[in-house]
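1st attempt posting a full record on here, be nice pls
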Amino acid sequence: MLSEDLVKKVKDILDGMNVRYEEGKVKDATFLISLWRTDKWDELEIDIVISPGNLVVLFSTLPVSSEGMENWLLNKNWDYNFAHFATDISGNVIVVSNIRGEDVSEELMRLSLASIIRAADDLKEAIEEEESGNSTQ
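the predicted structure (as C-alpha cells):
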C-alpha cells in the first residue's frame, strides 16, 4: 500500500469514528494528533504516525517519570493486547501501539486507541494510589 493511500485510509477510519485530529508532516511521515478526555486525564494527547515504511504507530508520551515504576510498567505490559509501556531517552513514560499498514482497520484502530487510553488511566491511577500511600508494586 502506498503511503498516501495508508494516510487516507487511517484518516477515513478516524473520520468515521468522529475522532478530531490535526495533521502534520515531518520528513516523509504523516502525524495525526488528537486530544482525549479520559477517566483520569483532562487532555491525553495521542499521536498517530503513518510512516512511509507501511506502519501506523499510535503513542502517547505521558508527563510521568518512569523512575521507581519500572517493575510496575513491565508487569502491566502483560495486561494490554494492543499497547505497551516504554520510556523515552528522558525517562518519561510512553504508551505505544503498532499496526502494520496492510492490517489497518477500524477495529484495530479502536482497540489500539482503547488500549492506550486504558494503559494511561491505569498508570495515572497507580500514581495516585502511590501518592496516597498505597503500594503499586
